[in-house]
Design a protein that fits this description.
alpha/beta, 4-stranded parallel β-sheet, 3-stranded antiparallel β-sheet, 7 helices, 7 strands, about 20% strand, globular
Length: about 240
Amino acid sequence: QVPGYISIGQVRFINNSTVRLYANYNIGTGNKIAPFVIVPAGQSLHQHDYLALGDSYISGEGAYSYLEGTDTNDNKCHISLISYPYHLSKNLNFNSFHTVACSGAKTGDIIDTKGSYEGQADPKTERGVRNNDSINTIINNFLPGYINQSDFVTTYMPQVITLSIGRNDAGFSKILTSCVSQLNLETCFSTYEDRLELVRQTNRIFLDLVNTYQTLKNSSPPDTRIYVIGYPQIVK
């Protein structure tokens, strides 16, 4: 199936029926390495058109009209039915759309597949303790806040992903509160040590973001489009 085939590498299952690999092949006078996906005959590669991932900026925190089950004492994911992913799915005529974003999410809530991951919803339950039926119920019903969001990617292989993540890793709320509560508003971080620690924290978050983007890319078909949504500049 690959003209000029030479070899393959990095072969891995990304879900129960889909294999992703990289093929090395001749093209013209040189070699090329590109990703390929193998699925069973008759099965579509993409099981979903559009999937929204991330934190409160994409879930719709503060917009109210929350999806049933996401505004309870145990689950504060706060997915709003008037958040912008719903508008996008309608205006762009996607046939299938879901959002599993959750208010307060950090990069680990997107890609942490370890058995010790507890999720965001209460009661906290380690992933390794959940049985397959419980996990399947969560995935089949697109229930946010219980397992890592990337599992929905590997299950449904969406054509389009929008992702908003990082502000909670940065401690946005704590930083903002510190800044607006200062008597002298000329600077939020008045000492060199405070400013240096903020820079170090930003560098750590950068690496977490790169890892998150790469993990989602590796968990998706090669033609999946991943759009990273930024944050508004609320103050100069």
